[in-house]
Design brief:
The protein has helices spanning 2-5, 29-36, 99-120, 182-189, 200-237, 240-248, and strands spanning 62-65, 69-73, 83-87, 130-135, 150-155. With 249 residues, the chain is an alpha+beta fold. Strand 1 and strand 2 (69-73) form a beta hairpin. One of its GO terms (molecular function) is catalytic activity.
Length: 249
Amino acid sequence: MADEFAQLVPETSHHSRPHADHDFSPRCPFCVIARTYNPTSPSAAEGNPGLNPEQLDPPSFVLYSSEHIIAFLDIMPLTRGHVLVAPRKHRIKVGDLSPDEGAEIGRVLPLLSRAIMKAVMPNIPHQQVDYNVVQNNGPGAAQVVPHVHFHIVPRPPLNYVTPKRSTPMAKTQYPANAQPTGFNRTRVLFGRGPRDDLDYEDSAVLVEDMRRCIREEWERSSAGTREASVDQDQRSMGNSESRKCVWKV
């Protein structure tokens, strides 16, 4: 039975159900991925055998795995580096998310977006890259797999060439993407376009780059949070009025 459940076959129901009685669906591909890959700290994700893509068939390239959230490469990407961010538990629509799940998605989406763009377009600053963050609810809104997921879709310049790994990452100037018009504007807005099967060999390299970039962003974010906390504590220690405010809170 385990082999049968490991087949990533989308289910057909899009009806929301209460949390308690439907945290896992064995026929949901995202539930299968979440149950296969345990939470892993970003500092320990690179080269971690617990995140081996071949634990499932087809392989699942997981780049982020926490208590509530899991992120992995889309098996039919719109562009190179197309990532799905989903809750671990089987939530069908955004309105089904628990407060903790919603809060963690809100916290990690900016970090993952920065890290993914850095891995996919390493020689373009984040301020200059284009990408979609798209989320659909229900078949009428183009949701294919009935499990909440956010698409992060890189939109590299039309003439973009991924630098070789041995190439120094000097910033390269690329013309900005042209503003789409008419029907093309709608297609880009909703993340539509031609989709190809995932390139497994390239994905094995790319997911490691993404894990590295996530670790760097995570460590930078954690260091900034600690620094701000220490700074606030020091100000409070040196100011009696600040100490009063802290105690009142």
